[in-house]
Amino acid sequence: MARNTGPKHRMCRRVGQPLCGSPKCPALKRPYPPGQHGNRPRRRVSEYGRQLLEKQKLKFLYGVQERQLRRYLDLARKARGRTGERLLQILECRLDNVVYRLGFAPTLPAARQLVNHGHIQVNGRKVDVPSMILQVGDEVAVREKSRNLDMVVQSLEARGGSVPPYLSLDAEARRGQLVRLPAKEEIPVPVDDNLVIEFYAR
Fold this sequence. Notes:
about 10% strand; Ribosomal Protein S4 Delta 41, Chain A, domain 1; five-stranded antiparallel beta sheet
């Protein structure tokens, strides 16, 4: 499975936002692009540049590759409703992302690792495919032998049982469920989906 192996905070520095979600993100102290010429007035960005940046932010936030994103876009175009919103819903319903939103892992890469290593069940069956798209009603749980992993326990304690409104969580049982599809305003990603769709419409 392809994954991003470059500098973890390069995109954060580029856009001047802590996209990684880390409280120690360098972008909080240095909200300008990396490199010796980074701390200069930002150049005016073209419309194409804005569209490209939003697309790159989306890929970074969900840890997907170009081919995957294009495939999700094709699915979104075939579904009812606004293409941009449907694309965000598809990405938000990936198994690794749901594991992260439920608080079983502190970061998205950590959630992906939990899935890859076979610690997660979907509807009672072990699943090791992070890109699996969940359906409404699917139940996600940490396997019984993995429920007391330090990472899982510490992550749940840090989150305090707080989950998005489209998910439900039983923290004691290490179990959650996708109750419904998320509305666009409930998806906590700082991305303009309209610009992403415009980029692929060129």
